[in-house]
């Protein structure tokens, strides 16, 4: 893994870590329903600055729902979420404040297909952070270089491979200079040969001290960068453990069954 | 059929074009409003638009022209015939285009809005920068199709005494007793307007498809 430029935001983040563990993201007694379906049941957890969390569990366990609640893509029924000191509520101001602090990467990339790679990256900085076009382009080029895709800036997303698109999506989120990044199964929609380039990008981001929550089944990635692995089932956090302990000696019966299934083919 | 009759037909054609342009420009402006309000989360904005669309899609254009021409004066608006017809056509087009664009807006994958929200884009930017350009592209075939329908629909304005192309054709035909010839020419003129429109729509579609090449 090659070393990359350390940006202002990440620099300060790595200086602050691991001295005093200030909570970057905190969830308290979060409940979420889809109609009668109880999707999240009393979720309690917190992420400190610079920490990397891998969230895993069987499908339907609520792991995607959980991270989508953090930036209010899903409203919660009750409980409390605090992100970088901003308490999330249904008010647009609170939602905007939280969204300025966290970036998100989706399974399906969700790049804007009618805009070039560069335009994808400068839209939010210009509209939200009110940067001039020149400033936004400068930032965008810096982050596109960082995910090693600077030479594709003029192309449209559909002209890129899946792995390249996902790296653009990461760069697009980074252009807002977020304090934390949420990854919702970022490699699940990729062909196998493209998984590595995206994971490498995420590893280098982790090395620079970014606070990250990743929903993923990439257990190699979890071992390599995670500070904690959180295992969910049926809308609850079942087990929270250091990655080595989680993989070698899972405490909970359901974690063992889950690991047995996903590791069977590795 | 002499030059005089042909000139008369061409005058009718100008009125047809005029009504079409008015209906379409008005329809686009109000149609955008209808579409945006129609997808609003607030029922106070959404439900009136559902009714608006229902009324204009559920009744014949002919009846709408009648109501505008005979009904508006009863309410104290004294419009000339062309203005009454324009109001009816604009309202009619706004409902149909609004519904076409509503469908297109909702056909844009929800991941696009989610990405815009996750980036913190304000609501207007999410619509203008992200959703509407994609919806416009999706709606293009139906929009051009409706434009062609509207152009032909202006022939109904004849019913309130308006001398547009079809009405001009009837008058000329009654004078020279050659209905086949006259309506053949009228048909050819309609075709000459609609055909390029369809071609233009197809071209636009292809160009936009090439722009975001797959």
From TrEMBL, chain B:
<dbReference type="InterPro" id="IPR010065">
    <property type="entry name" value="AA_ABC_transptr_permease_3TM"/>
</dbReference>
<keyword id="KW-0812">Transmembrane</keyword>
<feature type="domain" description="ABC transmembrane type-1">
    <location>
        <begin position="13"/>
        <end position="201"/>
    </location>
</feature>
<dbReference type="InterPro" id="IPR000515">
    <property type="entry name" value="MetI-like"/>
</dbReference>
<dbReference type="GO" id="GO:0043190">
    <property type="term" value="C:ATP-binding cassette (ABC) transporter complex"/>
</dbReference>
<feature type="transmembrane region" description="Helical">
    <location>
        <begin position="49"/>
        <end position="71"/>
    </location>
</feature>
<keyword id="KW-0472">Membrane</keyword>
<dbReference type="InterPro" id="IPR035906">
    <property type="entry name" value="MetI-like_sf"/>
</dbReference>
<dbReference type="InterPro" id="IPR043429">
    <property type="entry name" value="ArtM/GltK/GlnP/TcyL/YhdX-like"/>
</dbReference>
<dbReference type="GO" id="GO:0022857">
    <property type="term" value="F:transmembrane transporter activity"/>
</dbReference>
<dbReference type="Pfam" id="PF00528">
    <property type="entry name" value="BPD_transp_1"/>
</dbReference>
<protein>
    <submittedName>
        <fullName>Amino acid ABC transporter permease</fullName>
    </submittedName>
</protein>
<keyword id="KW-1133">Transmembrane helix</keyword>
<feature type="transmembrane region" description="Helical">
    <location>
        <begin position="135"/>
        <end position="160"/>
    </location>
</feature>
<feature type="transmembrane region" description="Helical">
    <location>
        <begin position="12"/>
        <end position="37"/>
    </location>
</feature>
<keyword id="KW-0813">Transport</keyword>
<comment type="similarity">
    <text>Belongs to the binding-protein-dependent transport system permease family. HisMQ subfamily.</text>
</comment>
<dbReference type="GO" id="GO:0006865">
    <property type="term" value="P:amino acid transport"/>
</dbReference>
<feature type="transmembrane region" description="Helical">
    <location>
        <begin position="180"/>
        <end position="200"/>
    </location>
</feature>
<feature type="transmembrane region" description="Helical">
    <location>
        <begin position="77"/>
        <end position="97"/>
    </location>
</feature>
<keyword id="KW-1003">Cell membrane</keyword>
